[in-house]
Each structure stands twice: as C-alpha cells, then as structure tokens.
Design brief:
Number of strands: 10
InterPro entries: AhpC/TSA (IPR000866), PRX-like1 (IPR047262), Thioredoxin-like_sf (IPR036249), Thioredoxin_domain (IPR013766)
Organism: Psychroflexus longus
Protein name: Thioredoxin family protein
Distance between the termini: 20 Å
Pfam families: AhpC-TSA
Structural class: alpha+beta
Strand order of the largest sheet: 6-5-4-8-9
Domain Thioredoxin: 9-165
Order of helices and strands: EEEHEHEHEHEEEHE
Strand content: 15-25%
Amino acid sequence: MSLTPSKMLKLGTQAPNFELPDSISRSLLSLEKLRGEKGTIIMFICNHCPYVKHVNDEVVRLANDYRILGFSFVAISSNDVKAYPQDHPDQMFKTARQLNYPFPYLYDESQEVARAYNAACTPDFYVFDESLKLVYRGQLDDSRPKNGIPTSGRSIREALDALLNNRPVPEHQKPSMGCNIKWRSY
C-alpha cells in the first residue's frame, strides 16, 4: 500500500460526464441521471483499501443524512481488478449489500473516469454544486486509521451545509489520504 494524497482538482471545474455500470443494479448509470438537486458527491473508493474501510460507516451516515436534503452520492471503483480481484464488481456488489450503501457503486473498468476527475487515491471525495461545478475536493475529515480521531465527515458536512445555506464553501481544503488507485499497466 502506498499512502497517496488527492491531487486537488481545480475548484470550479465542471464535473466530467460518465456512464458506468452499477455493481448493485447491474444497469448503466450516467452522471446526468445521478445528479442531485442541491449537489452531487462523487467518491472514488474500493473494497480492499484500509483507508476506505476506516471511513465506510461514516460515508453511509453522511449519505443517509444528506440524501433527504437533495444531495446525491455516487461511489466509483477504478482499480485494476486483475491485480486486485477483491475490487471486482461481484465483490463490489457484496460489499455494497453488506454495508447497506445508500448510493450506486459504479465500476470504471477503463479507468477513464478516474483520469477525468484526476483521482489519485481511495478514498477521494468531490462535491459539486447544483450546476455540477466543483466546490470541494479532498478529505472526509481528519480521521485516519490508527490516529485516534473518530470519523465525523466534518470536512464534507461543512461543504454541504454551506451549499444548503447559500454560503460559499471555504477554499482552504485538505487533501484526502489513502491507497493509490491501482492503475492498469499496459
């Protein structure tokens, strides 16, 4: 495992469009179909990463808290499943069911979506406003495995609360830290 920070895509960037298969429903889903009325949270995650496992429960709480307020949540796994079979869509389905993901869990086999978002690690979070402009990118909160800080989702909750209350999202944002995305070798 290589500890990798987010690359911090430029604020104001328009969300790159995508259409990917959902490991839960087995249907193709697009950004346009998934976008939320108030905003859209795109999360690059995977099954095997200890940093994702550490935040999974809080990500589910966060999604459950904010979905009813008009935000949509979308998880995407872009890892090379030949090298990391535990991240295969069949395993994604099992993980989503076991953890009761209240959001689609999409598979980016070509890794083109991860590249379009400049995703670097798992977990990597992006918050887009109602017009799909990037207003936040980076960490869920200050918690990391073994640092003793409980997960709270504070960083993303503050961004979502700012959107809800028509306030600017603070521009000082900390990168996420986690396992690097497992890029395919060509």
